[in-house]
Structures are given as structure tokens and as C-alpha cells.
Amino acid sequence: MARDVHAARVKRACRLMGEQGIDALLLAKPANMFYLTGDGRLCSFVMVSREGEVAMGVPTTDVEDVRRLARFDHIVGFENEIMMIHAISHFFGQFGIKSGRVGLEYTFLTQAMKGMLTHPHAKPEGVAEVDGTRIMSSLRMVKEEGEVARIRASARVAAEGMRAGVAAVRAGATESMVAAEAERAMRRAGAEGFWRSYVSSGPRTNLAHGVATTRRLRRGELVMIDIHPVVDGYSADICRTVCVGPPSDAQRTAHALYLRAQRAAVEKARAGVTMDELEEALQGVIGEGGHADHVFGPPVHGVGIEFEEAPLPSGHAFFHGEEEAPPLAANTVIAVGNCGLYTGPWGVRVEDTVLIGPRGPTVLTRFPRALGPGR
Amino acid sequence: MARDVHAARVKRACRLMGEQGIDALLLAKPANMFYLTGDGRLCSFVMVSREGEVAMGVPTTDVEDVRRLARFDHIVGFENEIMMIHAISHFFGQFGIKSGRVGLEYTFLTQAMKGMLTHPHAKPEGVAEVDGTRIMSSLRMVKEEGEVARIRASARVAAEGMRAGVAAVRAGATESMVAAEAERAMRRAGAEGFWRSYVSSGPRTNLAHGVATTRRLRRGELVMIDIHPVVDGYSADICRTVCVGPPSDAQRTAHALYLRAQRAAVEKARAGVTMDELEEALQGVIGEGGHADHVFGPPVHGVGIEFEEAPLPSGHAFFHGEEEAPPLAANTVIAVGNCGLYTGPWGVRVEDTVLIGPRGPTVLTRFPRALGPGR
After folding, report:
1. Theoretical Cys-Cys bridge with B351: which of A16, A143, B136, B337, CB 3.0 to 4.6 Å?
2. A81 contact B CB<8A
3. Are B270 and B357 in contact (CB under 8 A)?
4. What residue ranges do the domains of chain A occupy?
């Protein structure tokens, strides 16, 4: 993306900083650094002054690479943690910040990392620390056209991955081998990487987070595949449930109910709707189908640089340090179908990445949803 | 592993809790929960009383699965964050803990997660929070025979992954496609998963963390491949640098120097050595070779449930919330070669997982180290 895109984002960040009385942002989360500068990597930091000056600190080994990728005003390379702390102190000095408030990423920093960023040799004593999470989340929530294009590309790669994953489903294969084919297909289709893949089978389809194991698939079992490629820095999120051989009537019925629930939520996904309304739409249909007690987890969440990001439904948002999102604006991208229908012996789930349009939704992850053979 | 293994680990944890005046551990890091109970998963917690009672809280969807996998005294399923907070409060009550100190994982918890675990409705007001990181790290540092066997299995899978990754190195392939083949081979060889793969090429081999991109390899360039499978819950760590076609003299010389440095450190890896001595051994040889300014990052770290865990060299440990490790005992497992030799235009690095034996080291990740063709 052009550098003026990042300049404009920094400008928007500064406006929010002003409104919230924050004098500097001190970021270490790669997704946030990438959004504001064009580059985000481990063991690095970005400091933004309220006037819009951007300073970066990265390992000395990485300075030239970051110069090529990122937009910033100042950069310093460091050799170790002590020099990193001094680099932070240096930029506080250069920006003339001796008091006021610095915004940190409370939903990202561990105690140990926070200890480094706010070390007495890094942060001036007079500068108070506050949570800057919501500034970054609200900036990233509505996508620019360039971002939507990247998420579309990621969604196409997600469909390729799902095609390979579903094709690998057969009795005797392990969950991990199904994940292997989906992941390889995503990389070959253009992904630079992916977030953790979930592949679960049989009784494990009832789990909230079915990370792949070496369990072998058996005939008649369900298999849940949930993958999240990263293409050009942007993610997509797709989940399908398929059966090893012909599904049972109970499996068919539950799956059909879930599809109706997902469709009800997707149809409501247009500008002005709230995340809670989408949650209610999906859960409402499942409840009417007699499975109100069989849902777990927030059924909708934002998708962008991270495969799971703001906006979140209000309850979930609160406990994860995010705020309740305003009614969704056009060009917000969300995943619909993040919670499963968990019957006990097995579960079903279908998830798609959806673009909120001014007049209606567009499903970006195009791949058949059928449970049984013939898919 | 048999359940008495976990009972014995809890007993050792209780002894350390007693020594440090900690009345309960409240864990949320999957690696630590897995170590003490046999199961560790997202959105869950484990509470351990000083008397050795173990309570778990997991999503209701997961209760039966956890019953099958974990050793514990009490379990509760929760539907959402509010019920999770109440479950924590419930166990504080059941254990009769109204005052004293609870140990949390400061190197793992974000501010938001810590806020949930210590919510006024979760933690009794009279209970102070302290960092329990070092208790768990010191427990996990020396491996039991069963753990060593799993790390050996993981190291064999790592070698299979490296074989496939190196075989995929050719002009025109992307870094991501090299990662794809390594990852797929690890899953097919028995890995249930892997930690993030690093594949970098050309100028990107000079980066501290060369995460794969869609950059295409060119003839004469170096390619650095760093992979970390997980087998039966345990990791291994291997890195190799290879050339696309014949390497230049400068590349050969730097690589040979790095191999000498790595060998010097591996040869010292026996019971009684310190992590700092190993660091000095590796960096010393590189320094004598004229590249003292071209190293970055700690060259050694522990390997186990996580591919990078305690012990760490003292400087790095301090900033990451860990303590300086005592001289290494037999059956500690470490990775040697975690820092690269970064010349500017390119870097080289070779890393292996090494078992500290009573009389000497055993390199577990057996794969040729050659830079050029004919490997």
C-alpha cells in the first residue's frame, strides 16, 4: 500500500489520541504496527506522538528491511533488551514527552513485556500508562478499499485450502494430515502463512477449540476444518463440517439447522446492524431448533489483519479488553459462524468471512457447505 | 503418561509453593496446565492448592474430553466468561483460601486475561497476586525419561520436515512453498502440529525472525529454514541454512565459522555447565572469526513442551520474566544455535536440539549441516 495510506492512518490515530488525552502510543503488537506503518514484527516497537511523528525500534539486523517496508520518521536498531529500553527512552526525549499519558496494548502485552516498555529507564516517571487497545481497534474496524481487496484475496486462498482439506478427508487419515493438505494448499495458492488450523473429528467436533491431533478419522464421523490464511498481511476465516462417508439423519438435521442459523445472521449483515443483533439472529434460529443449550462462544467477530479481531459481541468484548462496537459501518468485515452447535457426542459448525456492504452482505469465502458426499 | 507422573509433578510444585509462600497457583498457559495435569487448552484454567488439590475449569463443551486426558480432583464446565470467573471464585472457596498469595503467569497473561483471573468476583480481596512463572519454569527445566523420549520423537520428525524443506529449495519457489513442504512432512511423519515456521531467503536471511513470505528464491542465495514440530505435546527445534546452487566463498567461510561456533557450544553441553558459558562458547568462536558485531539474540535456550522455554541465558531471562538458571543438570534439553551470524547482505545459522547428558551431549536433531549441493 502507498505510504500516504499509512500517513492517513497515523493522522486518524492522532485525532483519537487527542480526544482521549493520550500523548503517545507505544505499540509492540505486530498487527497494530503493521497497520500504522506497513511493517509489524516481533521484538520491535512503534512510538507515535500526538503530533503524528512515528518512531520505530527494531533489531539492528532488521533495520534495512524495515526501511524498505515501513513508513516512519525515525528508526533505531538495537542489539539487545537493554538497548531497546534505551531506544524507548530516547524517543520519549526526542518527542519532548515528560508527563501525560502513554497508551499501551493491554490486550497484547504480558506482564513481562509491559515491564520492559515501562521500565524506569524507558518511560519517564511522570508519564502515566493507559490502555490504548481501543484506539487501535476502532481505527482498524472499518476497512479501506485496499484492505478489502486483500481480504478478498485471502478468502480465495481460504477456499483453495478448504478444497484440499476436504479432499483429504477419508477413513484412516489423521486430523493432522487433513490440516497438512489444507495448509500446503494455502501456501501454494499465495499465502505467506496462516493462523493455527483447527481440524477435529468424531467426539472432538464437540470441542470449543478443536486443534488438530493425530487421531484417525473413521467412517460415519464428522470432521470440522477451520482455517485462516494470511495473504499480503490480511486474513480470512472459513470453517466447514463434512462427514466421512454418508452422514446420519441426526447429523444432517443438526447441520441443516446450523446452516439456517448462519444464513439468518449473514442476511442481517448490513450497515447499521450491531454485533449483538447478529449474535441473536444466529443463536435464535438454533434455539428455535431445540438446541439453545448447545452453543458456545461468540458466533461473530471481526476479520482483518488478524483472523479474529474487533468488533466482538459486547459480552465477549468486555472480557477481552475491547469495547462494545458501534452499529457496523459499511466495509466492516466479519466472520459469521464462529460458535458451533455442540450436541455432546459431536458438533457442527460452518463459518464464512462476510463483507458488510451499504445495502447487504457479500460472502467472501466461497466454498460449498454440503455435509455429505457429492459435495 | 501415567497419572502418577502428574501427581508427582503437582507434589513438586507444592514444595516450591511452600518455599515461596504461595498458597495457590492459578494457571492459564496451556504448556503449564499440560505439564501438571496432562491437558492444556485455550480458555481454561487450573488451580492448585498448596496441599496439592487440583481444580480445572474448561468450556462445558470440553469437559468429557478433559476427563479422558487430564488428572485432577475437581472440574467445572463454564458457558462464558462470567461463569469462568464464578468458577475461579468457587475453587478459592472450596480450597478455603481467603488470604495469602496466588501465583499467576506473568510471562503469559495479558492485562486483559489477568483482569479476568483476578476479577473482584473471582479472586478474594485478601489474596495478593505474585508471579508464579519461575515455579513452573524450574519444574519443567529438567526432563523426565518419558519427556526425553517424546522430545527424541519430535526431533526425528523435525529431521523429516527439514529433509522435505531442503528438497523444496530451488530457484523460483517461494519461501512459503518451502515452509509448506516442511510442515506437511512433519504432520505426515506424526506431528500433531508445529510452532511458527521461519523460512527466509537472500537478504531476508539477515533478519532476526525470518518469517516466511512469498518472496521467490534466486540462484546463489542462501535460504534459512527453522522449524519446530510438536509430537505428543513435545517440541524440537532445528535450523539449517542452504544455498540455491553453489555458495560463494564468503558464504562458505561464514557458514563454516558458524558450524565451528555451534560445535564448540555443543561440546560444552554437559551437566554442570551454565547457559552463559554456552553463550560465551558460541559467541567466542564467532568473535575470533572476526564477526563479533554480527550476532543477535540468545544463542541457546531450553526446549520441551514449548520450542523455546527456560533455561535462557541470564540477560535474556531477566527481561523475559525468567530467572537465571542454575548450572544445567543432566536431562535438560536445549537448542544450540538460536542466534545467527548476520553479515548485512545475508546471514547463516545452524541450530540443533541437544540433550545434556551426565557425561556429554547428544544431538537429537540429526540432519546434515552442509550448505551446498551434494548435501
Report:
1. B337
2. yes
3. yes
4. 3-139, 142-363
In this structure, whether the domain defined by A3-139 belongs to CATH 3.40.50.740 is answered with no
Q: What per-residue confidence (pLDDT) applies to A375?
A: 47
Closest CA to B42 of B27, B26, B53: B27
**Which cell goes with B264?**
564448540
Collapse the DSSP code of B249 into the 3-class scheme (helix H, G, I; strand E, B; otherwise coil) and give the result: helix
Assess contact for B367 and B257: CB atoms under 8 A: no
Cβ neighbour number for residue B314 with a 10 Å cutoff:
16
Name every chain A residue with its beta carbon within 8 A of the beta carbon of B187: 174, 176-177, 179-180, 212
pLDDT of residue A1: 64
What pTM was estimated for this model as a whole? 0.97
B67 touching A (Cβ < 8 Å): no
- Count CA atoms closer than 13 A to A203's CA, side-chain side: 8
Give the separation between CA A324 and CA A333, rounded to whole angstroms: 16
pLDDT tens sequence across B107-165: 999 998 999 999 999 999 999 999 999 999 999 999 999 999 999 999 999 999 999 99
Q: Which residue has the cell 488450523?
A: A197
State the smallest CA–CA distance between residue B342 and chain A in angstroms: 7
Distances (CA, A) of B320 to A64, B2, B283: 26, 32, 21
In angstroms, the separation between the Cα of residue B294 and the nearest Cα of chain A is 8
Q: Which of B190, B161, B149 is nearest to A215 (CA)?
A: B190
Show Cβ contacts of residue B88 under 8 Å, excluding neighbours closer than 6 positions. B26, B45, B47, B57, B117, B119, B122, B123
In this prediction, residue A55 has a pLDDT band, given cuts at 50, 70 and 90, of: very high
Structural domain B3-140, CATH architecture: 3-Layer(aba) Sandwich (3.40)
pLDDT band for position A91 (50/70/90)? very high
Q: Let me know if A344 is exposed, middle or buried by CB neighbors in 10 A (0-12, 13-18, 19+).
A: exposed
CA distance A358 to chain B (A): 32
Q: Mean pLDDT of residues grouped by 10 in chain B (375 residues)?
A: 88 97 98 98 96 97 97 96 96 97 96 93 97 96 97 98 97 98 98 98 96 98 98 98 96 97 97 96 96 90 97 86 92 96 96 94 97 66
Three-state secondary structure call for residue B224: strand
DSSP labels, B181-195? HHHHHHHHTT-SEEP
Helices B145-167 & B175-188 angle (0-180, nearest 10): 140
B293 CB-near residues (< 8 Å, 6+ apart):
none
Pairwise CB contact (< 8 Å): B43 & A208: yes
Domain A142-363 top-level CATH class: alpha beta
Whether the CB-CB separation of B27 and B46 falls below 8 Å is answered with yes
